[in-house]
């Protein structure tokens, strides 16, 4: 393995390098600060959602461990701490999402009504039609987000060019190859779009989950009633009741159309009259949070166990192999259903509307797939000379694994983790599709539930109810597999154009 070459003095610190040439860093930081201020409320809301999930995850682990050893008092205390911390984070998140931002619904409103049969539109951005006002906001949010992602990558390029101690590292070649990998770039683009949905879902939708799905009878809709010839007000729930898509007669509000209450629906409506686009944006956040938690924990377990089994071998490796085979031998969907039923009344089932429990189940039933995938590279690196040299110099096993083994298997872990994430998303959708207490708890949006609601109308005018959520799931899973292919080819150029055995090993639900 070629060693990185240094262009700075070995004793220099990052701070000293920044002080010697501050201009590139200041230029990048100024633009980044401006981008953050533009959407500070939405960004903080997304970050606090991740923090809330992390708080719940850490406290849940301690709760389970204390419960296993019979420390019920400590377990109850952990639950109290979890409730307090999660409540504080939720309050902060709600406050952050309430901050006015440049690209918010309040700044570029699309919910308005006709003043008369011939117009004009009232309460919309610049008096535009709701469809045009909504499109302006969506285009600005997507453009802003894509540029922000690029600028974050630009920050790494600035660091590499001006402040990194090493003149070259193997990562440079991997990044350069990925920048020329069109299939991998497609995966990055798809993942970026769905991350935008998760982060800015409330602003992207023509309405909000609260107004249209969770508590529609607590909000009102103003519209022009053509029959009465006057502007009237109705509860959003009543407007939904009269905007159903059931494929019979005039009971259908298809994609890119208005209902009778002057509301624009980019994806049409559901059989209960709720806006499908808003439903999908709400589902994107919970789907990516659950999938991210599941694959993160699964990768942590698989990577750690792979290094342990490769370093020690013998009975430890055999025990892990037997355990992994035992878990894999049981159909994964059956395991998901069984464990979900067992923990149905546990407090974990209420966290993230059931999503956190599902993330734990996916993680603890999915790590054998990742472990099998990275066990080979871990065994290979464990036999390298630099590992033997580190051991001969008296370095402890934990240090050897962290410094000399983990960097080698990280790339392989990223490849198989990105491919396995698709299986988690499909499994989550399948559970929500089955219903009966499985999957994400209603009324929180879930993609699989939308597919289930529309399965009776696939061949009729209301085809959009099942087709659009199903197509989005397919696009996201395909994008994740494309990203995995791109990372694999960037790590090992000789694998480009090879067979798809690695993709098949991604592991589904």
From TrEMBL:
GO cellular component: plasma membrane
One record GO biological process: transmembrane transport
Transmembrane segments: 25-48, 55-79, 131-153, 186-205, 286-312, 333-349, 355-374, 411-434, 463-483
Keyword annotations: Cell membrane, Membrane, Transmembrane, Transmembrane helix, Transport
Domain ABC transmembrane type-1 residues, every copy: 284-484
Main subcellular localisation: membrane
Localization per record: Cell membrane
SUPFAM superfamilies for the chain: MetI-like
Topology in the lipid bilayer: Multi-pass membrane protein
Keyword Transmembrane applies: yes
Family label: Belongs to the binding-protein-dependent transport system permease family.
Name used for this protein in its record: Peptide/nickel transport system permease protein
Organism, as annotated: Halolamina salifodinae
